[in-house]
Every structure is written in C-alpha cells, then in structure tokens.
Design brief:
Radius of gyration: 18 Å
Shape: globular
Oligomer: single chain
Bound molecules: 1,3-dihydroxyacetonephosphate
Number of helices: 11
Order of helices and strands: HEHEHHEHEHEEEHEHEHEHH
Structural class: alpha/beta
Largest sheet: 8 strands, parallel, barrel
Amino acid sequence: MKVMKFAPMKEILKLAEEQKVAYGAFVTVSYETALAAIEAGSELNCPVIFITGTDCCDLMGGFEGTVETVKRAAANAQVPIALHLDHCRTYEECVQAIHAGYSSVMIDGSSLPFEENIALTKKVVDYAHTLGITVEGELGKLVGEEGNLVVKGPEGAQTDPQEAKEFVERTGVDCLAVSIGTQHGHYIAAPQLNIERLKAIQEVVEVPLVLHGGSGTPIDQVQESIRHGIRKINVATDVLTAVADSFEELKKQPGFKYNTAMFVNSKNAAKELIKGKMKDFRFEK
Ligand code: 13P
C-alpha cells in the first residue's frame, strides 16, 4: 500500500475560497462508503473531505481503524483527501484522533455557555496547530440530533454574527460551523435558510464557514449560501439513504440474489449521489 498522508482540511477550504465554491464533506462508515467518495472525487478531480463522528469510527475499529480504512480506500487517489473528526465534544478525543492520523478535527462546544465553548475550542486549537491540524468550531445550534444532543425550535438557536466574530478571534479556529436554518437528518418541513444572517456573519468573520445538515436542503438555497461564504457542506443522511435505498431497489429486480454484488451496487449508488453533490457545490452541470 502506498503511504499517503491526509491533506490539512484548511488547504482544501482555501482552494474553495479562491474558487468561490464549497466542497462536500461526506460521511464514511465503511470501506465501501470511503471508496464511493474517493472514486467520485477522482472522476471529477474534486478534493474529498471525510466526516466521521465517533459513532462512524466505532464501525471501523476506532480512530486507528478509521484512518487505516480510509487510507486503504485512498491508496491510488490523485486528489487531496482530508479526514475530519465530526462533532467531537472532548479535548481528549480530539487529541486521540490527531495521534491516530486525522488531519482535521471539529471541537463542538456549541451546547456549552459561550465562554466555556471558547475555552474548550481554544485548548484544542492550541494543541492541534502545533501539529498543522485543522480545527473547526461551532457556534449556534442546529435543530435536530447531534449524538445525544437534541435541539428543538428554530431561529433562537441560530449563530449570532458578533458572537461569531469574537469566537473566531479568541479561539483561532480555521473554520466555523454556523447555524442558519439547516437541520441534521431528514427534514419534516422544508428548510428556509437565513441568508441575511449568513451575510451578516460573513461580513465580520474572516475564516471559511461550514454548513451542517446538507442533506435534503434545496439546492438553490445551498448555492445561495455558497455565494455568501459557505465553503464546506456536511452530508451524511443523503449518503446513508442512497446506500439503504440501493438494497431495496435491488431486491425488487427479477432474479435478485443475495451476493457480494449488492455491496458493489450500494457503493456505486453512494458514489453517484456524491458526484451530484460535488457538481452542485461547484456550480457544474
Ligand atoms: P445530514 O445528515 O443532515 O446530512 O447532516 C450531516 C452533518 O451535518 C454532520 O455533521
């Protein structure tokens, strides 16, 4: 296996900023889902960012297993690939992921009071930056579920622009996840992104902005958010849905057999979904 190193996510986001596009950050839970995104990125010459929460890592053998799984899938990739720890709530786990080989971590102190979020985020930044690792912070809460945290109710939880400015300046984060009306998981009611709030954040915040809850968000709204500074878009539910649906569709076909081709088919379904997102986020037809 060729020894590859994950790219710092910061560099990928810098590229996105220069090109005024966003790059998708796709969930991986297995070798096949990693391969799906790597094949998609390779075919479209598009950098790939992987997001893995600790629940995803558990499925791949912890942080080390995840690093090995993604490296193996990426062995022949010609595009930059970043491996990012998603929604981590502790300093200790961020450090473990970094030692295992991650190139980027998200420390999510968004459920904490403002000053505590700053203190925790800055502690991770101070350590990660000595090793060239990218750090994402979060301010404001996404409606829906993030692990054990369940947030209800819309606008009150969204990111405050002045707080965002202060947060970025005091912590030194490389990018900031903002809450502007998206939600994790499947939408029950259609989202209405708060683009005016995003514009106000973009005016005062110097770092690239991140949109979580990319699944199911109408593409015109997503592209409008990219025009106003969103440079990374997290997509999990749509990838997992493509995988689940592929099995159901296959089972309806005449002559269906339970065999390994099922997994090739699901990898290809995830790949097509990811290619579509990559094109949308780069405004390509
Ligand atoms: P979705 O599952 O809604 O795509 O959200 C993913 C996400 O934001 C992970 O951090």
